[in-house]
Write a structure and sequence with these properties.
The chain has 350 residues and is of the alpha/beta class. The protein has helices at 6-9, 36-42, 64-77, 90-102, 117-125, 137-150, 161-167, 169-177, 194-206, 223-226, 248-258, 267-281, 291-301, 324-330, 341-348; strands spanning 32-34, 49-54, 82-86, 105-111, 129-133, 154-155, 185-189, 212-218, 261-265, 311-316. It is globular and about 65 Å long.
Length: 350
């Protein structure tokens, strides 16, 4: 049967009637990849069953598409002609694509010099009006929150409740892919905190059993861990470079209700897990996407999580081509050889 997108698939669990036109790019249906080699690296001999939910295979390359199909569908339903968001990149790309699909005007505010090249390229390709601001993501979010009070435009950041309605389908899919069961641990990056909030909503609605949540924040942008706003967040994981999450209270409630953990990991540990994903399992993600893996590895090493005979799902939020600059910077330069078979053989056998 042809996949029709997350709203069509799970409409009975979502607030969309049969008469509503759905704006979709056939998002969702992303693979849940068993990762035995990575599991052994994280927890040697523990029989940890580790899965990777690869959200980078959504239409615009990130998990944001799950929520954006719902937000843009509702915007069209309400007669909106223009949508707006502040973004570190993934929300902007997704909003631009779904707005284009619906024939809407789209404005995106991004922090100047703080958006990865792949995300900027996508925004421009989809025809969004990209506005670079001399400030942070949090400054941009304040601006768009205010402008929707003054002008008839629809805000499609994660404070839009329809975003969470779409994003919670990720939990539905995981339960379906695990034959009706939730994992013991659900691990993911936390930036604006919409995704962790949405997954908890989804598990509560769809699953008989509930996981414990493990949220990972970058050490330079970890307001939920420190309990205070970070005025100038800094991390190479640009997708989670956020100092004042919009869903702060809801995320903390989800963590409390699940008996979960929120932790901070350094950029070095994020990069270590980013390398492990690619080199042990062949999965290429943007750096922020490795934060859930880094958090799981760290908490196992600290003895905060017992991995023995447990099942864990790590959410990989965005594709590696979202941030090609970091990939090139972190890689060894290519080897140079003369165009000669003997040179190749000498290299191969050295």
């Amino acid at each position: 049967m042809r996949w029709q997108g997350v709203i069509e698939k799970y409409r009975q669990y979502l607030p969309f009637g049969d008469d509503i036109y759905i704006v979709s790019l056939n998002e969702g249906n992303t693979p849940l990849i068993l990762a035995p080699r990575l599991a052994e690296k994280l927890a040697p001999g523990a029989n940890l069953k580790l899965f990777l939910k690869y959200e980078g295979l959504n239409p615009t390359g990130s998990f944001k598409d799950r929520g954006m199909t719902a937000a843009i569908t509702q915007a069209v339903r309400e007669g909106s002609q223009t949508v707006i968001c502040a973004s570190t990149g993934n929300t902007a790309a997704s909003a631009a694509a779904y707005a284009a699909r619906a024939g809407l005007r789209c404005l995106v505010l991004v922090p100047e010099g703080k958006i990865a090249l792949g995300k900027l390229a996508a925004c421009l390709a989809y025809g969004a009006e990209v506005i670079s601001i001399d400030g942070s993501f949090d400054d941009g979010l304040d601006m768009v929150r205010e402008i929707v009070k003054r002008q008839p435009v629809t805000l499609v950041n994660s404070i839009n409740p329809w975003r969470l309605e779409g994003q919670k389908t990720g939990a539905f899919e995981i339960v379906d892919q695990l034959d009706g069961h939730a994992p013991d641990w659900h691990c993911l990056p936390v930036g604006n905190a919409g995704n962790i909030s949405a997954y908890w909503l989804g598990y509560q609605q769809y699953s008989k059993g509930l996981p414990r949540l493990l949220g990972g924040q970058a050490a330079g942008a970890a307001p939920l861990v420190s309990g205070k706003v970070v005025e100038k967040p800094e991390t190479l994981a640009t997708a989670i470079r956020i100092g004042n999450p919009a869903r702060w209270r809801q995320a903390m409630q989800a963590l409390d209700e699940s008996g979960g953990i929120i932790t901070a990991v350094t950029d070095e540990k994020i990069l270590e897990s980013w390398h492990l994903l690619a080199k042990t399992e062949g999965v290429f993600v943007e750096p922020a996407s490795a934060t859930g893996v880094a958090a799981l590895k760290q908490q196992i090493e600290l003895g905060e999580i017992d991995p023995v005979n447990k099942t864990a799902v790590c959410i990989l939020t965005g594709h590696g081509l979202k941030d090609p600059g970091t990939a090139v910077e972190q890689a060894r330069p290519p080897h140079t050889l003369s165009a000669d078979i003997d040179a190749l053989e000498a290299y191969l056998t050295r």
